Amino acid sequence: MSQKQEEENPAEETGEEKQDTQEKEGILPERAEEAKLKAKYPSLGQKPGGSDFLMKRLQKGVWGIISYPLSLEPKRVLGMKSVEQKYFDSGDYNMAKAKMKNKQLPSAGPDKNLVTGDHIPTPQDLPQRKSSLVTSKLAG
Amino acid sequence: ALGEPLSWFFWYRDSSPKPHLVNRFCILLTADIISTVEFNYSGDLLATGDKGGRVVIFQREQENKSRPHSRGEYNVYSTFQSHEPEFDYLKSLEIEEKINKIRWLPQQNAAHFLLSTNDKTIKLWKISERDKRAEGYNLKDEDGRLRDPFRITALRVPILKPMDLMVEASPRRIFANAHTYHINSISVNSDHETYLSADDLRINLWHLEITDRSFNIVDIKPANMEELTEVITAAEFHPHQCNVFVYSSSKGTIRLCDMRSSALCDRHSKFFEEPEDPSSRSFFSEIISSISDVKFSHSGRYMMTRDYLSVKVWDLNMESRPVETHQVHEYLRSKLCSLYENDCIFDKFECCWNGSDSAIMTGSYNNFFRMFDRDTRRDVTLEASRESSKPRASLKPRKVCTGGKRKKDEISVDSLDFNKKILHTAWHPADNVIAVAATNNLYIFQDKIN
Question: Residue A105 pLDDT > 80, yes or no?
Fold first, then answer.
């Protein structure tokens, strides 16, 4: 029994500001949801299935300096599940792990998002290397 | 009758007594989040893998006249640490110990074998019982100390004495370093000699005896990574035809490959895709069409795919569209924006067949899971939670209300707990026994009629 993708009655939506968009987009709740998302994140890319999106998925768990545009949060551009934290080096990684164990969010300073590769970095551009106060069980 | 799903789905009829799912035995594992659940071929063993890299195996209790109610209960049989967290310094890669999949091998002798995998490494584990111990060695004492050979004046034959049952798990093979990307599937071939492992871009074929070599049979990595448009999401061997396997993609397509046609199966033999109405396309279309699981029916005639909102049954003889589509939680279509923001839209739900292929089951949110009877076209929503699962009590069907007026006992879409997701479920290969993993709890439900 093939089911067509007929959408639900849009009156069942609970968004209060959605009446206008519904009229614009017709009766498709999916389109209304898309409009809602674009209203929140205007810089959202058109094609979520692009190579950037998949590249991030492939690189889950990788740390290192990965450049992406400063103006956009990585997830919004790339349309995928929250990207794993990027670390400057193994010491930074271990610090973050230790912090997470203490139920604190890892500090993701804005300097982590520095664009590299586009220009020759100066010492001021690079993020500070955090000292490894915690000995990792992975070391030795 | 065995395998007949009538007992689940008669609840719509007025006259007949309501069928029930009875909670015979509910096991609570609060150690870690369960990441995979799998019955073995006989259904007597149930393996679970968790985020901490541990495997816990349950064994079904045999019929016992002194404890008639205990038949069918699953008790812990063996626990072992399968994978440890690793850090690949060369590639700057953190390797999680989370068990992504467990697959049993068919039993060939007294021992049981299973394959367990994390993101990078597959391991073959042997689980064996020891219930005898040898006593009376010549060269060592009972406590293990070596005896002075010059002091030995007589020889004796060691005798076997019974001991408390000990279940040992030992790693027999480690299949490592064959995957650049993250392994999402493993599948044992019907030839019982080979198996496949699939990551985001490649599928490898292994021989169970050989760990230092594997054959690459599918490679969808483009020469230029900028041209990457889809990844492999799941793969499985055909249950009877040892040369056939399928793999699903993030774009909602399934490719069936025949290993007889060529060594590298980049060109599919069959391509399954449901035509999409271009006028209904949205930002979310591709994301929600991504297939999170693919499973052949036991008969080998059909396969089932799970995407974000539905379960589809495909006839292998028809590539143009599925023969059945079952809506799991269509009410979420008007919540896609929030589900994208909280990442839930990327959740990977699994699906499974019952032994006779007459029913299918998959999970949802709020600890709900759904069962569909293919014969009667009935479906039911049930909940796996401690509150609703008293021993010997029936599971009450649940209903989500989407409209304004909420009836008593219904739950509104906005009240659903999206942190309580049932991603992993398993159905006994023959009986009406199901295993449902709800975060870090495992529930086992059984049909009252059994």
Answer: no
